[in-house]
What does this fold into?
Amino acid sequence: MKHRHLVDTAFAVALFGLFAGLALLVLLSGAQAYRGIEADASAADTQRTCLNFLAQKVRHYDAVGGVSAGRFGDSDSLELWENIDGTDYVTTIYCLGGKLMELFREADNDLPPESGTPLLDAAALQVSEDGGVLRIACTGTDGKTAGLALALRSEEGAA
Amino acid sequence: MRNRRSAIFLTELLAAILIFAVAAGVSIRIFAFARTRADDSRDLGRAVLAAESAAERWRAGDDTADARYFDRDWEPCAESGAAYTLTLAASGQTAEIRVSGGGETIYTLSVRRTGGGS
It folds into this structure.
């Protein structure tokens, strides 16, 4: 009789253990799925935001001599030129310390890269121009890179 | 008396496990579906970017390649290791860009080159 009671108890404890184990498994798989989806969505958002921001900037400044690729600090940079009341100004977009930065200054005013305004998280920025096509690639903090090509309207006919 | 209580307890426990198993099955299906939707969303986003870039290059007269290949992380690669394919079929001043992967079309973009620029 005592032996049967022991078996009943052991069975109940084993069932409870199974229940607890499965509950933990479901909880962990849910947490893992959420973490993965959130990380992917966040990385995609950052890259898309970065590329769309740069594309809009290029479209805005797309006049002859208005857009160029260059270097600023240790990063590739996108340079957007404009003339206000006879003075040349340049807006430089570049990467510094894991951030995409923007700096607006007079063209002949040498400000250091640290003077810029941080916009969003980005590990690296690559900008190049060839034959009227501007190629921009943004590397996120997760190390993944997304790129975009933009045909400069101002260069059409010249290319 | 004790046997009866024990049987009721076990029945309750089994019923709880059964309900939990059904709920867990539904939850895991939902997690898997969410993962698939997230992957589809990422693929669509990257396919749009790739198609727009191809359209811009074609517009500038820079793209002569009929197809471009991408691996699972959407990095350009050779045809042999491709998970996604972008094809550009140009006909005169119009072109059809199609991005496909896993035997399915992810995104298509029709573009037209105009004399004035846009």
Notes: The interface with chain B takes residues 5, 8, 11-12, 15-16, 18-19, 22-23, 25-26, 29-30, 33, 36-37, 40-41, 44, 48, 51, 130-133, 144-153, 155-156, 159 of chain A (CB under 8 Å).
